[in-house]
Design a protein that fits this description.
This protein has five domains: 4-155, Sandwich (Jelly Rolls), CATH 2.60.120.260; 170-254, Immunoglobulins (Immunoglobulin-like, Sandwich); 262-479 and 531-560, TIM Barrel (Alpha-Beta Barrel); 608-695, Immunoglobulin-like (Sandwich), CATH 2.60.40.2360; 698-890, 3-Layer(aba) Sandwich (Rossmann fold). 18% of the residues lie in helices and 33% in strands. The radius of gyration is 32 Å and the shape is globular.
Length: 896
Amino acid sequence: MQKNIIGLNGKWIFKKDKFNIGEKSEWYKSELKGAEVEVPAAWQSYSEELYSYSGYAWYYKGFELEKKENQRYFIQFKAVDYQAELYCNGVYLGSHTGGYTPFRFELTDQILSGDNMIHLKVYDPEDNDEIPHGKQGSWYSRVSGIWQDVELTSKPETFISKVDYQADYRQKSIAFKAEMNNLAVLQNPVLKLEIFSPEIKSKKIKEKTFALKDDLKFQFEKIKSWSPESPALYDYQITLKDGEEIIDQYRDYFAFRKIEIRGDKFYLNDQPLYIRGALDQAFWTHSRYKLDNIEQIKAEIKKVKELGFNLLRKHIKIADPDYLEAADRIGLLIWEEPPNYAKWTKEARNLFKDEYTEMVKRDKKHPSIIIWSIYNEEWGLEWNLADDEKKQQWLAEFYDYAKELDPTRPICDNSGWAHVKTDINDIHRYFAVPEDAKSWQDDLDNYVIGEPEKNYVKADYHNGELKVISEFGMWGLPEPSKIKDNYQKMPQWYNNSSKLFDEEFKVPITAEINFEKYQLDKIFSNLDDLALATQRRESEGMKYLIEEIRKREKIGGYVVTELSDIEWETNGFLDFFREEKPNFDYGLSYNQEILINLNLEKRNFYAGEKLKIEPVIINDSLAEVEGELYYQFGDKEEKKLSKISAAGSSRIRLKEVLVELPEVEKPQSKELILKLYLKGKNQNPILDKSEIRVYPDLKNTEAKRNEVELDLRVNNPQFRDNLVKRGYKLRGKDSSRNNSLIISDHFNQEIKAEVKNGARLLFLAEAGSEIEEKNHLNFNNQPAAESWDKAASFNFFAAAEYPELPFKRITDWELDSIYPEYYLKNISDLGSYEVKAGTFKAWLGDFFLSLVEIKIGKGKVLVNTFKIIENYGNKVQADFLFDELVRDLHAGGQHV
């Protein structure tokens, strides 16, 4: 007979037990008086008072039941964080430790016909360093209590308790192993197996009755394999019979699929598989750790696939089983990893190993899961793996243990950081683009591909494992008004109520404090306006980061950080509400199966120059792609480039195309679009696009420079020559210096005295802290290098004050190659100043300046750290930025 399940989700009574008196006071013997709450959900979501609470608490559920003879009753909790003790009708039944996997207790002897009581005491310690907890309570809001489903199940006295299977893709066979409870009471037990078609679920394709001693195995002539494109699932039913009498039935599904690594590629079912993944923290706005229903899960997975992703890396959190089943049915790959502990102790390691073991045992049946991780970035290994041989030995032995648990999937030992024994050399690399675009290319070529052994504890541990960039990305802030609207008020994480962070840039309310403090209110109308501008820059940066990975065939895929914003961390493709960010461009191909790319070397030009396009076509589908490729510049008609034929799993680089840029009277931004129209498909073209900035040639702007005389005090002959070539007059040594316009790479007392008397100084302070005389101006060094913090930062520019420059307020490619390495940091010492440009991290923390006007006496100083000296005369963006800064000072702030 089919087992009966009674759902116990819904209304429960909850009561905090701050001083752990509930057990002594025998709360479990009567109806609990407390708050009515919804289960499942983290108890921190119930009220503001509970937001940061951890410790002891009790749940109570009363229910009616008509108890039947010859039936056994079980209660199952799919996950409770962290330690649970169960009472039924006042009787203690047992406890469970671990916050992510299911447990059950038999209630048969305690349950009554009529009214019944369930009490669950839960303990989630405030100090969670030695228990597996992941990012909850450390990076994001805490999660405690019953956060997954609760079910009451009735079963016959003898029943099928567990079924494992092993589907062999290569042999086209399926073998089952069934475990039965209380089998001895049956006289003639047999098992009947039925398998149903993956296409027509009611169509039975295999049926056989087995003696218990027999191998429960079927052989197939043909199989339909599971993949994201075709997620074929075979339903099966196992019936336990005693002779002809049906005792119990067990129904589930299985799939045929094989995942393996060959050289630099994954292979799924013997076909190349390129990973286009996103990191998924799996936190949500209200229930915290779980979506409310299966329809929400399905909608999210469908959205993930629409965005172009074929995999989610479930990040240091064992996945919700409902989510995994939906991934199986809809077709989404999963990379799963357990939650970490923090402190390296024997107890912590044992608890972690138990949690990992339960994860694999519960989830290995899911065809969607193709990779297991053990650790992430040495979280739990205390970040000294390279220096501790005992930890290296532990990790190598854990890898072997993980392979014994499941030899069918690749294992990643320590995601992102130094590897010891692994199947995947995955790497976490965070770069800001376009600020460090060239460094990103160099890092991929020279480190990730060129020296992969450096991502190992010891070079000889490296055995040519497949390379994956499994974390990278950039930030784009959400609109604060939307957060408030969705929560009806600002949530507590917005105000850092749980005191998770000391760094102000991780605390959203910092933005409200610093918005006016650092004069951003003069550049942006409000915080929403600023947030929308950051989203556009995030979109541009993510596009470039992914394109550069995909151009390199020796990298087997990527996992971008991340699918959605999570509370304060806002580097998601989607916002925290799983909605599209308004200013993020979702219409391009860079994250889709078929990518087309303009492959530009630069994006800033003088009129009359030739723009070089070297198109790249990447086809990660298994089918051949045919079509026609066009480009369109600005408002001109599109022009055909060539016909395209790209085999499945291929990359094509086309011959370069030169586009002559038109004459312009003032700087302009124009859109360059690449379009691929697929043959035989009546649909919109596949797109790539880029913003191109075109500046007037020298002749059109020389007259303005002729009007200005510069007092040059920069000891750089090339810079001097370029100024003269472009039409500037340089003041002689014997000329009067009253009210002069000084261009200097230093700021000594002599220059300061001149400024006090009315001179104007453009201080080219791009050498920052290396400048010997800088008049007590202090600088923060931000070199072009891998940096999570820098990838969370933004450069801004007071574009309205320089209307002749085609710059955005949150800048991107318009300042390519001239972004500062140094930023002015001692802002509070400046006295009277006006912010023109700068950088901030995340929620407007770590605020530094790249362009600021300071008033001193009768004169003023414009401090600049953009790289002008080395690029003037070579980079058009440096040329025009310098010219505009000079004009600003020359005109006394009144643009002419």
